[in-house]
Amino acid sequence: MSTEFIMIIILSLLVVSISGFVLIYFLRRPSSVQQVSLTQEINTMRTELERVSGLIQILEKDRHTQFGEITTQLKATNEQTTALNSTTAALREALANSRARGQWGERMAEDILRAIGFAEGINYVKQTSMPGSNSRPDFTFMLPNYLKLNMDVKFPLDNYLKCVNSVSQEDTSRYSKAFLKDVHDRINEITTRDYIDPNMSTIGCVLLFIPNEQIFQFIQENDLKIMDDAMEKHVILCSPSTLFAILVVIRQAVENFAINETSDQIITELTRFTQQWTLFIDKLEDVGKKIDATQSAYQNLTTTRKRAMDRSLSRIAGLKGSSQLSDTPVLEYTLED
Q1: Rg (CA), the chain
Q2: What are 139's strand-pairing partners?
Q3: Contact 133, 148 (CB under 8 A)
Q4: How far is CA 127 from the centre of its chain?
Q5: Contact indicator for 208, 238 with CB cutoff of 8 Å
Q6: Are 220 and 227 spatial neighbours (Cβ–Cβ below 8 Å)?
Q7: Alpha helices of the chain — where are they, by DSSP H?
Q8: 17-20-26 Cα angle (round to 5)
Q9: d(CA 85, CA 89)
Q10: How far apart are CA 93 and CA 304, in angstroms?
Q11: Which of 50, 175, 236, 336 meets the CB 3.0–4.6 Å disulfide criterion with 162?
Q12: Residues 248-279: tens digit of each pLDDT
């Protein structure tokens, strides 16, 4: 029961009470004292009535405000529902077209690859024919040692959509069985292609992408043998979440391989550097010995040889001083026989 309804009932009771007092007044003709008391009671009731009326007006105003907000919210909800219906209809039309389903699956896979950080042409290629074969997987992932992992994103959804949209239980069961059969047929179809071929450097399995978690869950809940059958045939069924996990592992493996390969190269370069460093030290020691010999020869020149030459110069200078005596006239004697 709403508050407005309760207040209306109270107001009605007050009106009935006032009417009863007035009726009693005219019937009994009260004395002047009683009349004054009755007047006071009526005034008190009138005051309470006015207060209740004010409360009802406030409640009415709030009701209009809340009603306006509810109307706005309902309008926004209606617009969102209309947009959602349009999107759902467009998605249903897209899923009804096999080519559009393939494009949708490719777009879902590309979003996951982009989220992981894979780059086309570096980590994977799209729609590339395999050498010497007519097979063309939707995605081919590049692995270490020139290995490859193929993935197909085309998946049968016609009977699944019919199963979801069916009304009767009989139709639901029939389309469900037909869809599961389509899944088995799709797995068998992939195994007939060259997606798994060691001669083409592929690893021993292939990915089959299911671009919807609900469809993946539907398969697991309704036919547990499909997963076992796929694994026996080396076909890995993966939903968007499981594909993300698989590609994360692949990326980590590639990075670890690159690190190991780089480490080997670093060790090789360090070995070469050690060899060159040893040769450098040997040659440096030879140059040091030659520098020491040159230094010793230089010291010999600047000390011993220089002092010997200085002594020779001193003697020459002494001889030069004594040669001045040759300037005195020489007496010549003639010997007689």
Answers
A1: 54
A2: 126, 151
A3: no
A4: 24
A5: yes
A6: yes
A7: 3-28, 32-96, 98-116, 158-165, 169-191, 213-222, 225-232, 240-300, 306-322
A8: 145
A9: 6
A10: 109
A11: 175
A12: 887 777 777 767 667 777 788 888 888 888 88
